Amino acid sequence: MRAISLELYKLRHKRLLLMITLFMLVEIAWAFMAASMSISRNPNSAEWEVLIAMLSSMNGLFLPILTAICVSRICDMEHKGNTWKLLLTFSVKRSTLYAAKYISASIIMLAACLLQVLAITVFGFINGFKQPVPLILMIRFLTGTVLANMVIIALQQWVSMAVKNQAFALSLGMIGGFIGLAADLFPAGVRRVFVWSYYTGLSPITQSYANEKIQFIVRDMSSLLPGIVVLIAAGIAIYLAGCVHVSRQEV
Amino acid sequence: MLRRCISAEWMKLRHSRIWMILMILPVISVLIGSANFYMNQGVLKKEWYSLWSQVGLFYGEFFFPILIAICCAYMWRLEHNNKNWNMIMTAPVSATNIFLAKLIVVGVLMFFVQLFFLALYFIGGKLAGITSDLPVELTGWLLRGWIAAITISTMQLALSMRIRSFAAPIGIALCAVFIGLGMYITHLGLFFPHSLLTMGMGVLSQTSLSAGESILFAIINMFYIAVISTGAIYRMRKSDVAA
């Protein structure tokens, strides 16, 4: 607990939250522009669903990159300040440090996801959507996004800590962003392999093109469960592998 | 003196394995683009032009600006480490030379990236079974893309110089990509570095720029390069460094 609050304390003047908020605002603006165009084209379609679907497909591009940036800053401050040795002379285990960094990154990214949910709600109210706020859908959207995020944080943290040169971690984030963006074009077997494709993969709404019209279909919870289990397993595996590998590295 | 600065910059890049990143990102964009072209050959019938629209979209619109941002952030990374700002500012070279050397090195690297991309485009097209000749506009696209890349490099170098964090300028670059896309759509493309790249490389519309537009394109690029680098050099000369 103390380690986590210290991690957040170290970040206090880094303006990380400001950057994430700005980044999120660009994404949200982009997604909502697309959504309102889609709504005005066919006014009868369900409105909240369109918003959520647009945002989760944008998430596939933005969140991997944002995660890469966020995690890289949290890990790079120790590389840059040469403070690894200092940190390790305290009587904390390396795995505790790793966990503290992981959890603080997760908290920050959770804030970004909450911001999205808030933005959806506000946008809905301002535009006077007819249906009430779909709480269940929102919670499912939030859970899916946060889950996918946490796996990617584990992966990014491994790379950011193991390789001092942050260019590699950021390139990985970049590549991830593009896989996330193009995820829907891949066949299902390939999609399962890439962790970045789960932003759209776990989204409660799916888009389908039938008769040249986009339809937004609410997915069944049970159809998503296998994906969730695979993702969580992958996340735990990546986290443990990263933790063990980094803990054994020479500083 | 400038030549020495450039060779110093080259030495700093040794063993950095930055070339791996410079290679990987174009390979991925050509792979995605070619695969997309190959699968949709029914719709994309204009052979090299269609392939360019697919490959260029991923490369010119997204990967290349970010590649530039990563490369520029890397150029300053060493300076931000280990109190090296003090070292470089006390070295008997002028701020102008330091900045220009970095810009030239990035420019040369980007030139090689463009050539590499051309090779990949050619291989991708041949593998997809295109038999016609290469489009005549190709040199123009690559050359203008390179000029716009230098403009973006100047902007990114200035950003990375001011911002100590490695990742923040890259985040800004990504936001700028989207702003550039918006500017391009609203026909203000000539006034923003990132949309200059879109226009110059003919990513979204492949009609060649007219002579007047080409001149305007060159002038605006020169303007951006001159203004941003003057600002950055002035800043380097006048403000105190925090090592």
Explain what this protein looks like in three dimensions.
The complex is a heterodimer of chains A (251) and B (243). Chain A has 251 residues and is mainly alpha-helical. Chain A has one domain. Chain A is 76% helix and 5% strand. Chain A is built from ten helices and two strands. In chain A, strands 1-2 form a two-stranded antiparallel ribbon. In chain A, helix 3 runs antiparallel to helix 5, helix 5 packs antiparallel against helix 6 and helix 6 packs antiparallel against helix 7. The longest helix of chain A has 34 residues. The model of chain A has no long low-confidence stretch (mean pLDDT 86). Chain B is an all-alpha fold. Chain B has one domain. In chain B, helix 6 packs antiparallel against helix 8. The model of chain B has no long low-confidence stretch (mean pLDDT 86). Classes of the chains: A mainly alpha (251), B mainly alpha (243).
Sheet/helix structural class of chain B? mainly alpha
Largest sheet properties of chain A: 2 strands, antiparallel
| Number of β-strand runs of chain A | 2
Instruction: State the order of secondary-structure elements of chain B, H for helix, E for strand.
Output: HHHHHHHHH
Shape of chain A: elongated
Give me the strand/helix succession of chain A: HHHHHHHHHEEH
Helical coverage of chain A, percent range = over 70%
Gap between N and C termini of chain A: 24 Å
Give the overall average pLDDT of chain B. 86
Q: For this entry, what is the oligomeric state of its chains?
A: heterodimer
Largest interface between protein chains, with number of residues from each side: A-B, 27 and 32 residues
Broad structural category of chain A: mainly alpha
- Return the domain count of chain B: 1
Biggest pleated sheet of chain B: none
Distance between the termini of chain B: 24 Å
